[in-house]
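quick one before i forget lol
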Amino acid sequence: MIYFVRRSFEADKNKLNHKKQLKNAVDGILKNAFAKMGIDYSRQQLCFNSYGKPYLDNRPDIFFNISHCEGLAVCTIAGSETGIDAENIREWRPRVAQRVFTQKELNALENSDNKDEFFFRIWTLKESFVKALGIGISYPMKTCEFLFEDDRIYANGCDGYSFMQVVLNDEFICSLCINDSDKCSNRLHRISKEDEFFTIDL
């Protein structure tokens, strides 16, 4: 399950407050979801590995991950290692692409009709993968490669992991990775939603 929270940046006046409000919203989602599992959750109970990935010290069988960008926060809870990343679609960054994209990814980006969206599709997939690994962007990101055919995602160098990607209102991209080769569809889903809160099943 992916949980989505949308929030207007203008309502929060500044970036710091906006980030705080999104974090509070995600905390509320996690508290409710974990309560259904019999877990009393609070942010103070969170532990973090050396790369900043959160976990519950007393429940090694439950995995979750969080991401937020301007206007959107997302989180997911799973039964195996998981990573999630969300980004606003904005002007793509050539220097970043050169640093972390493989040559095949760069070629596909160059041939794309929508380079901004294409860049963040690949970027968020890579981010979700390294977040699932729990080691952050210190991972050599050219060793994982993502190619597309229509709505199909082909992942190379990510054996044992599956992916799902959502483009929301042509404004946000959210990518999910789970350490389970059969859990996610390895497909892109384009959706339109104006709800402040909604969920998507895997």
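fyi The first strand starts at residue 2 and ends at 6.
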